[in-house]
Design goal:
There is one protein chain. By secondary structure, the protein is of the alpha+beta class. The chain has two domains: 157 residues, Jelly Rolls; 105 residues, Arc Repressor Mutant, subunit A, CATH 1.10.10.60. It is 43% helix and 17% strand. It has eleven helices and nine strands. The strands form three sheets. The chain has a five-stranded antiparallel β-sheet, covered by helices on one side. The protein has a two-stranded antiparallel sheet with strand order 2-7. The radius of gyration is 21 Å and the shape is globular. The N terminus and C terminus are likely disordered.
């Protein structure tokens, strides 16, 4: 019998951090002249970094009552969190969105994660935070969009890494399941979504019989292997089209037999044609 070893957590974490890809809705510094309330995670991913003073968190929860200068907080967007920045304090607040290619990472993060002494855990990211954002909501006026996105990406990667290395992550994280047989298949599909991923081929990779593999997969992920492959391909397709790739190129890269078949699948998943999606990306980048 073939044995499938678990993916080392360090390798899995590196791959996760490499998959991080975000867009910026706003980045700004809060320096209130009167106590100010701010909502994090209401409609997307948010990062808070306390620059000076202290920031107050809701009481009566399993979180601390406050965060001090050098602390950080991640709100994954699963539920909103209201924080208060009192007079004399200052904080960097980044409101972010996952790109389509990285949307699957949202399910791997906790609702709320806070990090004491983030500046000591990740000094490079903490130093970078001192230069991110302006005093008004929006992107820093002195930097272009690409540089701002790179800086925000580094901040997010550093927060996730610090949270994981502090031992806050659940056992087996960042795997979505503790089944190493299935994890090998998931990793392979994500790396090469255009391969001809039949159930038989995935079962062989997992070292399980076809029926056992299909049953385990549906129990773990709530969908069939074929449905999962389609979702991964559609995430990849959206990202490639946003980057300006031709529809026919994307179709071939993702293993579709024809442009028409790819377009039908894309429309079924997104409600838009591939060309319309690509045009939307071109307009957003202007």
């Amino acid at each position: 019998m073939s044995l499938v070893a678990p993916i080392p957590q360090s390798d899995a974490l590196e791959r996760l951090l490499g998959d991080v890809a975000i867009g910026i809705r706003s980045q700004h510094r809060i320096r209130p002249i009167a106590d100010q309330a701010t909502v994090l995670g209401a409609d997307g991913l948010s990062i808070l970094y306390v620059l000076d003073g202290e920031v107050q968190l809701p009481s009566g929860t399993d979180m601390p009552d406050r965060l001090d200068a050098g602390d950080a907080l991640l709100a994954a967007g699963h539920r909103p969190l209201t924080i208060r920045v009192p007079t004399g304090a200052s904080a960097l607040v980044s409101h972010l969105d996952w790109t389509d290619s990285a949307a699957h990472l949202s399910d791997l993060l906790p609702d709320i994660a806070w990090l004491r002494r983030f500046d000591e855990l990740e000094p490079a990211a903490a130093a970078l935070a001192q230069h991110i954002g302006g005093d008004e909501p929006g992107l820093a006026s002195s930097g272009d969009l690409v540089i701002c996105r790179m800086m925000a990406t580094m901040m997010l990667q550093s927060v996730i890494r610090a949270w994981a290395k502090l031992g806050c992550a659940p056992q087996g994280w960042p795997s979505a399941t503790d089944d190493p047989f299935l994890e090998r298949v998931i990793e392979a599909v994500r790396r090469d979504p255009g391969r001809d991923w039949t159930v038989e081929r995935m079962a062989a990779l997992s070292a399980l019989s076809r029926s056992v593999f299909a049953e385990r997969f549906r129990a773990a992920y709530g969908r069939s292997p074929a449905q999962y492959v389609a979702e991964v391909r559609m995430r990849a397709a959206r990202a490639l089209l946003i980057d300006g790739r031709a529809v026919s190129d994307v179709s071939r890269e993702l293993g579709y037999g024809s442009d028409e078949g790819f377009s039908r699948a894309f429309r079924r998943h997104t409600g838009m044609t591939p060309s319309a999606w690509r045009s939307r990306g071109s307009l957003a980048s202007v």
